[in-house]
Every structure is written in C-alpha cells, then in structure tokens.
Amino acid sequence: MNFLRRVFPIAGLMIAVAPLSGCNILIPDVAADSPARFVQETSPVFYQPPGVDPRRVRPIPDQPVPQTRELYKTQFHQTYGLPVTNPLHMAMYGELRDEDFTLPAIPVSRVQPQFLRQEVDYQTTERPGTVVVDTKARFLYFVEANGKAMRYGVGLGRDGYAWSGRGVIQWKQKWPRWTPPVEMVSRQPEVRAFSAENGGMNPGLQNPLGARAMYIFRDGQDTLYRIHGTPDWQSIGKATSSGCVRMLNQDVVDLYDRLPPKAEIVVM
Hints:
Order of helices and strands: HHEEHEEEEEEEEHEEEEHE
Number of strands: 15
Structural class: alpha+beta
Strand order of the largest sheet: 5-8-7-6-15-10-11-12-14
Shape: elongated
Helix content: 10-25%
C-alpha cells in the first residue's frame, strides 16, 4: 500500500508533463547563439532628428590647438597666461590669528610686487636695527647686518602733512587704541566721537592704527606721527594718510617683532 502511494504521484507528474513537451519548455533557446540575432538585439540606437539625413551630415573638422592664450593683455600688447602666485607671499600675507583677532588674507595679486616684504641689498651708514623711511620711493627699510635690509612697502602722508627727520621709536603697542589728535578733530569733525575726551576708538580690525603702532619721538617729545598697520591695503604705495607711515597689517606685525627697544628712525 505504501508502495502505491509513492508511485502514483510520480506517474501523475510524468502524465502532466507529456502534453507540454511540444512547447520546448525544457529545451534551450539555441537561436540566441545566432550572430545575426545578436547584432539585431544589441546594436545601439542613435538619435535622428526628423528630416535629417545622416548620410548628408558633414563631420566638424578638427580645430587647431591655440598656441597663445589671450587672457591678460598689457598696455604693450603682450599676452600672458594665468598669473603665477608666489607661495611664499601666500604664506606671508595669508589669514593670521593674532591675539583676539584674525587678520584677513591680503589679495597680494592686487598689490604691486615691489611693495611686498622682501630682503634686499642695502648699503647705508645706519647701524643694524635702525628704521629708514624713503618717502620718495615709498619704502621702509629695517637695517640688518652685512649690507642687507628687510624692505616693506608703505603708505605716507599727503603733501603738507608729512614729517621728516631723525627720531626714536619710544614705545610700541599691540592692537592700539586710536585717539585722533586735536588738529585732526578740528579738520575732520566726523572723528570727534573718537577724540581723547571720548575715550578714542577701541582696538579692532577697523581701527585705523591696525594691528600694531610704533610711536615716534624726537628730543623726548611725541611727534604725533606713528608707524602703524592699516586695514586699507590699497593705500600702500600712495600718499593718502594724515602724515603717519602705514603698513600692511601682516608687515607691521613682522616689523614689530624685529624692532629692538627704542630703535632709531630716519624719515627722509
């Protein structure tokens, strides 16, 4: 009895499959091996706009590679490629964290290269540690040994406001408070809010004295002229201030760290 129970299901399955043998369910589709059918089923389909005969479309000729890139033309009609950025300048004038403030990076590509900080040959009878300001060339030199000097570009006072002579940098200060002198307040009433009687302007990125100030004395008296930083980097190399010597903030920080106590200064 058990034997019949096992045989009958198998026999029934064979009877059910027999009529379906004509459908080739168990026979592989050998037509897929046909090369013609393979090409027909796998050939790419290209977009053809209506009304366009691809046989009449002419290919675009290869364009010659340009040998000159006319990106920046000078007044002499010379052409140059992209400007080269000096990585040393990027390091010297990049963003600088100083005390409680962060000095923004200076766009050195927009500053004339001669006004960027650099060590130069400089023959002078002044002893090392002296500051020499060349008002005509708009340079400040920090005299070093062996005929060298660190040169900085500076902005100077307008005609009638400049100071010249020999003095001493009596003291120097980080992130100074700006107090305009009485003469400036009388000329420019808009700065009265920062006068001495009102406490001056707090230190900060917008303070006209910038990150450092060095105060020039002569014969023990304050000349009221300063070497100081400025947030207005575009004024370097120009005569726009009210008599003081202004420097890029990153440069005035560098000079401040080099300057010995009571250094001599010559403004000529």
